[in-house]
Amino acid sequence: MDKERIRQLRLTAQELRLIGLGMVENSRSGHIGGAFSLSEILAVLYFEKMNIRPNEPRWEERDRLVMSKGHATVALYAALAHRGFFPVEDLKGFRKI
Question: What is the DSSP string of the chain?
Fold first, then answer.
């Protein structure tokens, strides 16, 4: 991976943090520590390594991520939305019934 791609992925991780921070602030609930610590990993997985098609979420050949770190759903939802699985606007409903 070249230096420019690494720089782009770092920026993506920062964007995920900003999206997550907005989610927690908007809902007045959530955990940002776990989400922030996972942002680089999710940026690399969802924007570089994983074999996925956001426009075909049920594609049988897709890679799957099993994440047991429940306190980091803020980062996962931010990554999925930012990658195009659903509109970022939908995150305004985070932790709202």
Answer: --HHHHHHHHHHHHHHHHHHHHHHHHHT---SHHHHHHHHHHHHIIIII----TT-TT-TT--------GGGHHHHHHHHHHHTSS-GGGGGGTT--
Angstrom distance (rounded) from CA 90 to CA 48: 24
pLDDT at 42: 97
Contact (Cβ atoms closer than 8 angstroms) between residue 78 and residue 91 = yes
pTM above 0.85, yes or no: yes
